[in-house]
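step=encode ok
step=design start
structure_in=
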């Protein structure tokens, strides 16, 4: 049994909360700030986050975890020291743990991220771009 955007915590088998359908486009329409992660789901010890991005982020690494990028709309370039990776809508790329990278988007781009709970968006770097995720 699936519910849409319901806060009803009923269970279908008395062990698991009813699943909630999340409409990514609707969630993206709910904010305008760029480079600010918004949490849309949690699975085990991972969070699914969305963000709108434009311009260049900062060079950073995530020493303890890989980072999955999925482009929802627009085009994202993930700059790596070894060469750039260009992602179009519907494409994913996993930046391996410890690999320095710098996301960049020439036009507004919507992305989905999948990473462990507590992962800072700027990795081990602290800057004016460091943001705690908020619920979308």
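sequence_out=
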């Amino acid at each position: 049994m699936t519910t849409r955007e319901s806060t009803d915590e009923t269970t279908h088998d008395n062990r698991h909360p009813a699943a909630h359908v999340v409409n990514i486009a609707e969630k993206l329409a709910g904010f305008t700030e760029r480079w600010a992660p918004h949490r849309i789901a949690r699975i085990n010890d991972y969070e699914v986050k969305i963000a709108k991005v434009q311009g260049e982020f900062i060079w950073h690494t995530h020493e303890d975890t890989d980072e999955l990028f999925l482009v929802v709309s627009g085009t994202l370039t993930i700059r790596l020291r070894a060469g750039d990776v260009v992602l179009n809508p519907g494409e994913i790329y996993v930046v391996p743990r410890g690999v320095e990278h710098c996301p960049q988007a020439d036009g507004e781009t919507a992305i989905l991220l999948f990473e462990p709970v507590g992962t800072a968006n700027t990795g081990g770097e602290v800057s004016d771009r460091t943001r705690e995720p908020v619920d979308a």
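step=design ok
step=annotate ok -> The chain is about 5% helix and 45% strand.
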